Fold:
Amino acid sequence: MKYAIATVSLCGTLPEKLAAIAAAGFAGVEIFEADVLAHEGTPAEIGRMVHDRGLEIVAFQPFRDFEGMPEPQRSRGFERARRKFALMNELGAGAVLVCSNVSPLSLGGIDRAAEDLRELGGIAAGFGIDVGFEALAWGRHVSDYRDAWEIVRRADHPRVGLILDSWHMLARGLAPDAVRSIPADRITFVQLADAPKMEMDLLQWSRHFRSFPGQGDLPLDAFMEAVIATGYDGWLSHEIFNDRFRMASPRRIAEDGARSLIWLEDRLRPGRLPPRVVPEAVEWIEFALSEEDAADLGRLLTELGFALTGRHHSKQVTRYSQGAINLVLNTEPEGLAHSQQIVHGASVAAIGIRVGDARAAHARAEALHMTAFRQRVDPGDLEIPAIRGVGGALLCFTDARSERARVWSIEFEPTGAAPSAVLTGIDHVAQSMSTGEMLSWRLFYLSLFDFETTPLVEVVDPAGIVESMALQNPARSLRICLNASAAGNTLNSRFLAEFFGAGVQHIAFATDDIFAAARKAREAGLEMLAIPENYHDDLEARFALDPAMLDEMRALGILYDEDETGRYFQIYTRAFKDRFFFEIVQREGYDGFGAANAPIRLAAQARLACPPTIPRS
Structure:
């Protein structure tokens, strides 16, 4: 199918929107009427601007409150149409989107509406224009695509067809099965929009919360399967109304839109791209650091039971390891990690993901228009396929089928040090971002990896609300949490503001014995995050915990949660240089992330960031 997007989906001026749409790889564009009216140039100049960017105008939209009107409004509607058609001829648009009437003056009746569309089709034919009729979910008389199709069928005019919009159908809970019986040549074009499940007025839901496929909860697969069953192979277009999209970079939003269509069509017609990547685990996490910060982080890691187990053969890069965890500290005076350190300070510069086939993973990423990263490979080093991820940090792919599996023996010289074995692996990685970016990165991960998502949860920070969701593979060997907050002084927002952009804010290590891990860290001199006595008193009231175990949890600052699946223990370090922090978790069948404890942790961290002042007497 051919891909298009409506200009109403993006912010910016019309030239900015068109540039972003073309750069994202779309072939077509729906021109929103307000964009034409607000532009200083003539419709003909707009048409040339569209053509010069290699785009085709799929439709001019919308044409409102037309069918079923009484006189004199009916006659005025046809006069409006003639003027719009003349403008469309100048613009170079070959189709118009007519949405079902919402006017309180409109009259019901399938035959009346069909007669109006038949007459409109005759006028449109004189201008060489096609009419597409769409049922708005809140239409006064026509709110169901099946009624819209019956009107088009009875109009029986070669210039009048049906527009199918996933949002208007699925938001009302309408089954898409009847789409299968609609002839493909009677479908003018198809619009796609997703949305989160919400209980609210349809108009408000539509105007503020639509999103791209993969960013919401609507059953788009069923909708598209029905469309494909008709034999339709025409334009597939986005019409998205979303407040966050209108505040974001038009180029980023356009890229998300194109990626969502590529991903959706690949789901329904497999084989167009390399298959979704099955991630196995985090192979390494690389930190960009100054030499001073590297020494301090090295001490913290040693207190957590890590050991310096390798030094790079030619670079200022070291490896700390424990269990299946590999942490790389990079203090090179040039290169990507150095640039990352200059801009963000001590930060995560790269995450290595072990997959079945690193080359295939990289090929899929590029097919999804993700930004590949390439740099010179020095003698004795391996070429690691990589793409840009959250905050510009790298997402690197490694596998067991190539020499990349031996990166630690090929690139690093062993020190002979033996780490502790208390921490066993990386349980999850949490990345902070702006609220406007969260849907983009959800789509990024879902389209690339074989991931499932958890429902969005709201966590209370003392300074506001933090939205959080998790993406994880079915085996639960890779978990990534996305966190965002619109409140300016939450821990999440301060991380973004003070360190110039999104990135990894915390890393959770897995253990089979969190009590041993906490005791060893304390004995090594590591100060963990202090948890109030009130919290553990409440645990005693809520759960039937062993009193001796609860006393040790209180002494060590261990948090606890349980549900029908099992138990969860967690403990946190203080933030390193006020940037990122570490967590240790022990799972016993539990599949969540301790959301009930997040407000306690955030409050404790807020006290450290803004210690209370002592009034003077």
In short: Residues 73-91 form the longest helix (19 residues).
